[in-house]
Amino acid sequence: MNIYSSRPVVLCLSGHDPSGGAGLQADIEALLAQGCHAAPAVTALTVQDTVNVSDFRVLDREWVLAQANAVLNDSTVAAVKLGMLGSLEMVDTVVELLQAHPHLPVVCDPVLRAGGGGRLGKDEVGYAMRERLLPLATIATPNLPEARILAELPEGSADQCAEKLLPFVKHLLITGGHGDEHEVHNRLYSRDGLRETYTCQRLPGSYHGSGCTLASALAGRLAQGEHLASAVKSALDYTWRTLRDAEQLGRGQFVPRRLPLDFCS
């Protein structure tokens, strides 16, 4: 038996979704699919299903710091993935953690709304993330509604949101699943002027946990040493396949199939 793991460790600071469609379970499955080991630190507990979120509770900062530091002090962490934070105090907690480990690549999925539309934090949480957290991230991966909240542009286009947000974050991937274009346009913006658009076929239906899946897959590709633009494409391609093969496990949105059926066989 090989007792020395060769898989990169990715620290995930995200909420728990009891439906298993989003949150930490999505992180774990997506990272396994990238050949990584997920180290999940719970930031919040939610009451949600595949239809929507009805309530949530953010954990005390001491518990989150203790979880994260237990991982950071024990393992060689290769990347950090951020998901639901839910409160101003939790934003400050994660800022404190990241400032203590500035060498780590950080993928920030600014979770502010559930797939069904329910809020997972007040709008001032978005403002705090933009001002204090995005400057510490390698890349942020909002969908267009989240980008509009972060940019404070209720009707803004992806380009307009990017212009407002790039002073805060080095790289920005605004996903187009909520758009009305015939194809999905996922747009990568970089502060150095790089612009890339990745198009894919728009699939029918709506999906629970697609943003978590994408951000975790991207963190996994970066942890594996892939360059950013290539990692973005790899993560987008992987996420599209999980949506193509998604399952309807409840009464609401489809859940991405992040692992092949024979994964454990």
Give me some keywords for this one.
single chain; 265 residues; alpha/beta; UDP-N-acetylmuramoyl-L-alanine:D-glutamate ligase; nine-stranded mixed sheet; 8 helices; 35% helix; globular; kinase
The shape is globular
What is the straight-line distance between the termini?
A: 18 Å
CATH level-4 homologous superfamily of the domain at 7-142 and 208-243: Ribokinase
- Uncertain stretches: none
Separate helix tally: 8
Broad structural category:
alpha/beta
Strand content: 15-25%
What is the CATH architecture assignment of the domain at 7-142 and 208-243?
3-Layer(aba) Sandwich
The gyration radius over C-alpha positions equals 17 Å
In the CATH scheme, what's the topology name of the domain at 7-142 and 208-243? UDP-N-acetylmuramoyl-L-alanine:D-glutamate ligase
The profile of the biggest β sheet is: 9 strands, mixed
Q: Based on DSSP secondary structure assignment, what is the total number of beta strands?
A: 9
Report on the structure:
Helix 1 (23-33) packs across helix 7 and helix 5 crosses helix 6. The mean pLDDT is 92. The chain is α/β, with parallel strands linked by helices. Strands 3-2-1-4-5-6-7-8-9 form a nine-stranded mixed β-sheet, sandwiched between helices. The protein has helices at 23-33, 61-72, 88-99, 123-133, 144-151, 158-165, 210-223, 228-244; strands spanning 9-16, 37-48, 53-58, 77-82, 106-108, 139-140, 171-174, 183-190, 195-201. 50% of the residues are buried. InterPro entries: HMP/HMP-P_kinase_dom, PM/HMP-P_kinase-1, Ribokinase-like.
